[in-house]
Amino acid sequence: MEKKVILYSQPTCPPCFQAKAWLADEEIPFEVRDIREKREYLEELVNLGANATPAFVIGDEVVLGFNKDKIRAALAK
């Protein structure tokens, strides 16, 4: 079963652009939650313990920052 991937992002975040491109290149389905689009998404991000984007929720694991190795490890669990 494939894990759900949520990417918390914002329009002015270069690492977020890189993360989206990498996920697409790797053919990993993901949902983008723009923290500037909905206050609810910003609140979710803060509740995850993050203070910056990008942040990922992969299944029930949180990965802060665009770290390919950590993302791959979370997907593999």
From TrEMBL:
Residues 5-63 form the Glutaredoxin domain. Pfam families: Glutaredoxin. It comes from the Bacteria. InterPro entries: Glutaredoxin, Grx-like_ET, Thioredoxin-like_sf. Gene3D superfamilies: Glutaredoxin. This is Glutaredoxin family protein. It comes from Tumebacillus lacus. The lineage of its organism: Bacteria, Bacillati, Bacillota, Bacilli, Bacillales.
